[in-house]
Amino acid sequence: MYLSRVQRRPGVTLMSMYRNPPLADPYEEHAFIWALFEKDGDIGRDFLYRRVDEQTGSLFYVLSKRKPQEGNEQWEVETKSFKPVIKIGDRFQFSLRANPVITKKPEGSASKKRRRDDVFMNALAEYKDVPHAQRPTNAEILTKSAFEWLDQRAQSNGFHVATESVLVEGYRKVEMVKRSRKDSIQFGVVDYSGILEVTNVGLFYKVLNQGIGKSRAFGCGLLLIKRAGP
Fold this sequence. Notes:
It is a single chain. This protein is α+β, with helices and mostly antiparallel strands. The protein folds into two domains: 2-81, Alpha-Beta Plaits, CATH 3.30.70; 91-227, Alpha-Beta Plaits. The protein is built from five helices and eleven strands. The protein is globular.
């Protein structure tokens, strides 16, 4: 695997920025990341990415099976091999942007139909009939529902997270309009950070390489890690 950082080259002029404007939505981001790799019609998406907005502009972290191309006059691509040595009990600081959803059977448990519900919106709906004075704040509802979603998936992905270590950094709706369609697609995004502990090396390697949750083609699911202290 390869881990790359993709950012605007230093000294890009305002005129260049005008000719190459910032990417407007996840569809454009997705196409931009695809363009970093040599065209091969037989290969499906084999990368995850995460957009990070900083004062100097946006940059992308890209984890991929193939090594990306060197970039162009506008964008600089720095790539290194990603082969972390991991053992049970290792602790990492992590950062994750996820699209947390739950799957429901709207027509009963015997139904084959499935519906994906946004975790936060679903949690808010559960309090719709609770008097305002008796219900938690929206921030508390978000933190609880988002943490539970992550915690429920941790064991099957080879790690453990402690409630007190996890920060749920916000919630926002992302809207995309595909050129070939008139309607838009929306999904919720939550940013997490905290400390995790590895419980199963094989499963943890798998989630590092494949990501976690939905909307992985559109900037979600990449688990960024850095070794934590004792």
